[in-house]
Amino acid sequence: MIAALALVPAIAIAAIVPPPPTPTANTVDTIHGVKVADPYRWLENWSDPKVQAWSDAQNAHTRSYLEPLSYRGAVKDRLTKLVKATSPSYSALEARGSRVFAMYNDPSKQQPMLVTLNAAADPKSRTVLLDPNALDTKGLTAIDWFVPSADGTKVAISMSKNGSEDGTLHVFDVASRKEIDVPIPRVQYGTAGGSLAWSQDGKKFWYTRYPGPEAPSAEQHFNLQVYFHALGSDAKNDPLVLGKADGLERVSEVFLGNRFNRPSIMAMVQRGDGNVWAFYVLSEGAKPVQIGTYSDKIVYATIGPDDAIYGISRMNSSNGKVVKLKSPFSPHSLASAPVIVPESDVAILSGGAEGGAPDLNFSRDRLFVRDIVGGPNQVRVFSLDGKPEGKLPLPDVAGNSEIEPLANGDVLFDVTTYLRPRYYAQWHSGTGKSEETPLKVVSPVHFDDAEVIRAFATSKDGTRVPVNIVRRKGTKLDGQNPALLYGYGGYGISQTPRFLGAMWRLWLDAGGVYAVANIRGGAEYGERWHQEGMLTKKQNCFDDFAAAGNYLIAGHYTNHAKLALLGGSNGGLLMGAVLTQHPDLARAVVSAVGIYDMLRVELDPNGAFNVTEFGTVKDPMQFKALYAYSPYHHVKSGTAYPAVLMLTGATDPRVNPMQSRKFTASLQAATTATNHPILLRTNKTSGHGIGSSLDERIAEQTDELTFLFDQLAMKPVANPMVKAERQ
């Protein structure tokens, strides 16, 4: 029997605290001869007590709407129980020496911890190496990244607090679990990230570091450079080994790697966030050798197990091809490296380096190439000279993000789908066969009653846009189902399948349909797909997403009054653009940590890194494109906007929270839909969502679901498909 949670129209009877009055100012900029009004410029100054008081009043307004909803407590309780009843999970596997290092996420804890397993990656051998929850009982300290030495006896770990991503480096002896070096600050931040690579002897390492007090405060999150450190020495005296003199720029992002413990390491340098790269080989005691330039159109390179350099080239190849350069490595030699895996009709996936994952993977004698086919992944297997040897066995609509070589020549690879939790399988080099391992997530949430439909919407210019639709089997296509459409569309980041989990189980149980649009700006069909959604072509992203929403309506999945939209970060920009360009498309919008004032975003530290993706107001043509879609500048007074829940974090290093403040104020002043609230939720101890505590993540999901349930008149229910609720 399906039990309905109590649903009472609480909002109709609750006393809603009104939003605070928001004064306007006559602030006008003139850009390329165009006068641009900015009436809420004063909300940019977070140090102003008036701005902080305004933000607190907005939070009070939001809470007064959400808290009285009679089913809110039941939704939060169910989410919490399902999340915490899920088994612990492993990720970021790194095999070194006789150990496999991994991040271990225990749902009873606020933060993931670093653990070691034996060489066979047996979860029964788990030993906790570093637990942030023991360091900080509030759950506000997080591990940014870790890098073990080649023999597995030491590990370097960056940690930060309050979602700031402002990382300090700590080095631990693995056997004793004791810190063995003085911490080094400023190795990681949300602008250019941070990384590290060990020397071959495991006694030294190359690492990234930002400027300190010697630089003006406005410049301390730019100019990332590479230093060389010997354990036990004073980091203040560490020599600079890759910096401005070598071609690094103010917005360079540097990714270091030495996966196979070679004498030299690879330094990949990205110009901002634009997926344009240069490459350097670094050797102890020697000057850096630049083997690749920005114009070479190489988007990834690494030193493989045979001392050769393998790269992904997009020169005359939108889908990518693999090149191989044998040592010795001479300057500017990567562009002429021979092709060993030619371009095919599917795109080689790249861009994982920014998240710490390699784009090309290896065992002792095999090369693994991860492709993306419109959203789902496939993995091809080759010999080290490029001879095809089949594929890893992935389900038809599945994702893969990790392929980790083991000491015996096998590899572990993860598999994710919309309907099944993440698991690892082991591929055997001797037989080419695979089987699942005990490294898998066991969830109380099941989707045996659901199905995934791959459909295509037609965008404004005729482009076919994939839409992944998850629905309960037997869903009636009568146009009356609540539907939620998610999108991102930027930076060449592709939306691959991932397990829906507890939040979307509740959504389907309440009668909802969930859809993910693979819009341009991602790389689902290669770099061409990305380039067609960046710079002056950004409008394509918004057209694609609107087309996906209209497809759901035309296909009788839903109607305008039952459709909701969801996105975050770059996806928040997507939400802002679509709701201002198509205010009647959806009833409700959830937009997290978004960008809305496209004319001032580049003035913030991370905004400067985004110029390669969005463009700059300094360029007349790019300004014209930015101004044409900038959500903040296209809010029109007297328009009935959808209900909007905006979420932001006060410590966000990637998107200035003022973006959400200004957009909220403009929408509240302009909308005529009194029953469509415009809400702003600001968390003072979180940032962009990276490093947030488990409790905060559950609280955000609770607020998002209850907001959507209320706006779409949905009835949350307890579903018998959930094991935890059958017992």
Tell me about this structure.
The chain has 727 residues and is an alpha+beta fold. Helices cover 18% and strands 31% of the residues. It has 13 helices and 42 strands. The strands form ten sheets. The protein has an eight-stranded mixed β-sheet with strand order 34-35-37-36-38-39-40-41, with helices on both faces. Strand 21 and strand 22 form a beta hairpin. Helix 3 crosses helix 5 (501-509) and helix 3 packs across helix 13. The longest helix has 18 residues, at 49-66. The protein starts with a strand and ends in a 9-residue tail after the last strand.
Characterize the quaternary organization of these chains: single chain
Task: Please describe the biggest sheet, giving its number of strands, its sense, and whether it closes into a barrel.
Answer: 8 strands, mixed
Q: Which class of secondary structure composition applies to the elements?
A: alpha+beta
Pick out the low-confidence regions: 1-14
Secondary structure topology:
Elements: E1 3-4, H1 10-13, E2 28-31, E3 34-37, H2 49-66, H3 72-84, E4 89-96, E5 99-105, E6 113-118, E7 127-130, H4 132-135, E8 141-148, E9 154-161, E10 167-173, E11 178-179, E12 184-188, E13 196-198, E14 204-209, E15 225-230, E16 240-242, E17 252-257, E18 264-271, E19 277-283, E20 289-292, E21 298-303, E22 309-313, E23 321-325, E24 339-341, E25 347-348, E26 360-362, E27 366-372, E28 377-383, E29 388-391, E30 403-405, E31 411-415, E32 423-427, E33 434-440, E34 450-458, E35 464-472, E36 483-486, H5 501-509, E37 513-517, H6 527-531, H7 539-554, E38 563-568, H8 570-581, E39 588-592, H9 605-609, H10 611-614, H11 620-629, E40 643-649, H12 658-670, E41 678-683, H13 694-711, E42 717-718
Parallel strand pairs: 36-37, 36-38, 38-39, 39-40, 40-41
Antiparallel strand pairs: 1-42, 2-3, 4-5, 5-6, 6-7, 8-9, 9-10, 10-11, 10-12, 13-14, 14-15, 15-16, 17-18, 18-19, 19-20, 21-22, 22-23, 23-24, 25-27, 26-27, 27-28, 28-29, 30-31, 31-32, 32-33, 34-35, 35-37
Helix pairs in contact: 3-5, 3-13
